[in-house]
Amino acid sequence: MVAWIFCYSQFNVDVLSVESAAKSMNQVRNDYIFYKGAFEDSSQNALWQYMVDYFTDRYLKEAMRILNTEALDAETRFSIRLYCHGTVAMTREWLLNDNITPADAIVRMMFTSLPEPLKSH
User: Fold this and answer.
1) I need a surface site. Which of 8, 10, 55, 59 has the fewest CB within 10 A?
2) 3-state SS track over the chain
3) 33-45 confidence digits (pLDDT tens)
């Protein structure tokens, strides 16, 4: 159920738009109690793992679209997965420990680390 709520909230987010991603991050902050509990859960079906898989899939599809290909090389797939692990971890850290930095600043910092194929959109 937690994963469904997260997925539903992300359905219309443009993962390559700072503005759209920042709006989504603000919503995460607005739903602090829900996400705090979800991020603290380390069970087999933890939200953070679902988020990594969800965003990896979205970014892989975006990279294939941008590169006009149906398959990505191992290095690109790795860099996208690494990016997703990092951004999910930093989102968790931001939500639980940072009451100062605005969402758009966090998203802009994350976007500086986007894998190269995704930067060229």
Assistant:
1) 8
2) CHHHHHHHHHCCCCCCCHHHHHHHHHHHHHCHHHHHHHHHCCCCCCHHHHHHHHHHHHHHHHHHHHHCCCCCCHHHHHHHHHHHHHHHHHHHHHHHHCCCCCHHHHHHHHHCCCCHHHHCC
3) 888 888 887 776 7
